[in-house]
DNA sequence: GGCAACAATATTGTTGACACATTTGACGCC
DNA sequence: GGCGTCAAATGTGTCAACAATATTGTTGCC
């Protein structure tokens, strides 16, 4: 038996007690997870890039084990892949997988469109109807894609919230964070945004008159149309 | 500064090297996860039951940290809930959540029915058509529910495999493991299995003739019908 | 007995140290 | 220079000790 001598600190300081070290205060696992999710979804960390535990451990000021926990969460969401003893790399999407994600997205968004229509009073969609009949078209004319995407996100977010189905919401969230950059690239494809805008108006009109069945059908058509655009320009998107 | 002396072993034995201790060999995280999933899905561990890290650590012969990792995975799947410093308890399902799970299941199974029909030659469904036209009805007449459920699982499994969409497959899997016991209780509701059998035949007929659109429509009707049965007998199921 | 305060026990949460694997780089040889 | 071999460096995987918190048990008082 060997005997080793370890020096240990007399008092263990509380988590937030010493913020001075490294000039970076410690972060919670949730914050770290969220940060890395955003970086990967926004391709700030590009597909195929390697994530080093020590680097992140140093950056966030947390022990390496916590980074590993976050990696597990990212892996279960399909954002990274872990190879034993080799580390973690950002998942690289291929066209085939994107189509499969879109197939699932189609039925889930369709479901949410219907549930949302059934759950809230039709008048509550009026502001979005207005926004989509005027401003959104202007954004396209002036090439203000950021504002257009913002309006797109708003509609989507409102629909999911109104649907009130946390299961579907979570699943869609995991799809968005994986296809986020694809969505944005589809929008700037020639003519796509104009077509999509028309389709969104149709969906909103159905929701506005309380026709959930039709809203679901139109939403699915919209998703298929987006998928076709993606397929037509596959070489330019991925 | 205090100095503490720790005794450490000279050589660390490999994982499988010493199987004699406690008469229980060490298990991989995957095995443990699978075991606990099955226990919770089968209500071997009932809803609301508390899971103690040390107990499981001892049972599987692994360090407690590994049990905690498994807990994280179970939590992300919604099978358990963790309360800080209070431990983990098996999630208790309420009717509202079951309905929401069924809404998602409806669209996902519908999608898989369509994709499966599109992906494989129509003839490949013949054995299931045969099985559902003869033996399955016999199982119901003789009250052999186990065989009936087995035939039900087989159809479902084949459909998902043929659909070839791992995203949808994984989502459905997480729904099944949460509603597994509900599915089995619905089947034994008066008249439900007979109605369901008829609907499954219709779905299979559509798949057999290669009509994916119709297969999706019928599958969704089937799921709605099951949901209605569940609603009618809600007091007996949950 | 009822109950509040405290002590003891049990359980969960956190972390650094060590073990193991892979990659990198230096060296010698042909 | 090309290339196999070995050593050092780097990075990942595992775990048990320590800390913090919650739960249970005990005591003393009214």
Which regions of chain A contain 5 or more consecutive residues with pLDDT less than 50?
1-24
Distance between the termini of chain A: 58 Å
Number of helices of chain A: 11
Tell me the name of the CATH class of the largest domain in chain A. Answer: Mainly Alpha
Oligomer: homodimer
SSE order of chain A, as H and E?
A: EHEHHEEHHHHHHHH
**Share in β-strands of chain A:** 5-15%
The major beta sheet of chain A can be summarized as:
3 strands, antiparallel
Number of domains of chain A: 2
User: What's the CATH topology name of the largest domain in chain A?
Assistant: Four Helix Bundle (Hemerythrin (Met), subunit A)
Give the structural class of chain A: mainly alpha
The number of strands of chain A is: 4
Descriptive account of the structure:
Two copies of one chain form a homodimer. Chain A has helices at 29-41, 53-60, 64-76, 95-119, 126-133, 135-142, 145-163, 166-187, 192-208, 212-232, 234-237; strands spanning 2-8, 50-51, 80-83, 87-90. The first copy, chain A, is mainly alpha-helical. A three-stranded antiparallel sheet of chain A has the order 2-4-3. The first copy, chain A, is globular. Residues 1-24 of chain A have low confidence and may be disordered. At the A-B interface, strand 1, helix 3, helix 4 and helix 8 of A face strand 1, helix 3, helix 4 and helix 8 of B. Chain A binds a DNA duplex (30 and 30 nucleotides) through residues 4, 6, 8, 12, 15, 52-54, 63-66, 68, 84-87.
């Amino acid at each position: 038996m060997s005997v080793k001598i370890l020096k240990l600190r007399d008092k263990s300081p509380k988590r937030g007690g010493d913020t001075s070290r490294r000039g970076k205060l410690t972060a919670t696992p949730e914050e770290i997870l969220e940060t890395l999710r955003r970086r990967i979804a926004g391709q700030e960390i590009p597909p195929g890039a390697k994530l080093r535990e020590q680097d992140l451990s140093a950056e966030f000021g947390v022990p390496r084990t916590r980074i590993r926990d976050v990696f597990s969460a990212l892996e279960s969401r399909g954002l990274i892949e872990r190879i034993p003893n080799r580390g973690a790399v950002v998942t690289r999407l291929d066209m085939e997988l994107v189509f499969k994600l879109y197939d699932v997205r189609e039925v889930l968004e369709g479901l949410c469109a219907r549930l949302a229509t059934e759950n809230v009073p039709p008048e509550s969609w009026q502001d979005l109807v207005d926004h989509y009949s005027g401003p959104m078209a202007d954004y396209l004319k002036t090439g203000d894609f950021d504002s257009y995407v913002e309006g797109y996100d708003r509609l989507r977010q409102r629909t999911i919230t109104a649907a009130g189905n946390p299961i579907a919401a979570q699943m869609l969230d995991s799809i968005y964070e994986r296809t986020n950059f694809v969505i944005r690239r589809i929008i700037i494809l020639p003519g796509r945004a104009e077509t999509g805008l028309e389709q969104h108006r149709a969906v909103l009109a159905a929701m506005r008159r309380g026709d959930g069945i039709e809203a679901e059908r139109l939403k699915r058509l919209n998703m298929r149309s987006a998928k076709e655009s993606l397929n037509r320009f596959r070489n330019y998107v991925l």
